[in-house]
Amino acid sequence: MSTQPHVVAICGSLRDGSHTRTALGHALNEARERGASTDLLDLREFDLPPFDPDHDEAGDATRLRQAVREADSVILGTPMYHGSYSAVLKNALDYCGFDEFEETTVGLLAVAGGSFPTGALDALRTVCRALDAWTLPHQVAIPSAYDQFEDGEFVDDSLEERTLVLGKRVVEYTSIEPNPSSFESEQNAGGD
């Protein structure tokens, strides 16, 4: 890790007025306040066709993998769709693997139009575990997202605080000492 940690956030929403993107911006602002360099990987700006293992270098896959691999910490942000995370984020993660995520600190953030997006957070936590990432215990769930922002700012102080803590934690834990290699990391080579 460099002396200045580098944090990237991957936005799993394609909407122009994405509340996921807005919340990730707040988390990244806090990470910068804590001394990190940051990048928002807005999946609207990546050409990522549906993942095909026979063509895993398609489109902007190499650019995405490089950006994630160079990060000390990653924040995954998603809207909740049908109880889980977005297809666009799933597709982006399918292009990545152990080289990008193993022993990397990952923070999770999910928004929902309705109730708490815990299904999306649980599903992302499972994916991160499979990739041998170090997922922060602190996560952000933003319910009723349409009512939580006004002019790009949070209207609920407690949700804003949770989001800022996420930005703080991804910087604090960039230098976490990872556990020894797991059985999963040695055996989970993908679905050949």
UniProtKB/TrEMBL annotation:
<keyword id="KW-0560">Oxidoreductase</keyword>
<dbReference type="InterPro" id="IPR050712">
    <property type="entry name" value="NAD(P)H-dep_reductase"/>
</dbReference>
<feature type="domain" description="NADPH-dependent FMN reductase-like">
    <location>
        <begin position="6"/>
        <end position="146"/>
    </location>
</feature>
<dbReference type="InterPro" id="IPR029039">
    <property type="entry name" value="Flavoprotein-like_sf"/>
</dbReference>
<dbReference type="Pfam" id="PF03358">
    <property type="entry name" value="FMN_red"/>
</dbReference>
<comment type="similarity">
    <text>Belongs to the SsuE family. Isf subfamily.</text>
</comment>
<dbReference type="InterPro" id="IPR005025">
    <property type="entry name" value="FMN_Rdtase-like_dom"/>
</dbReference>
<dbReference type="GO" id="GO:0016491">
    <property type="term" value="F:oxidoreductase activity"/>
</dbReference>
<protein>
    <submittedName>
        <fullName>NADPH-dependent FMN reductase</fullName>
        <ecNumber>1.-.-.-</ecNumber>
    </submittedName>
</protein>
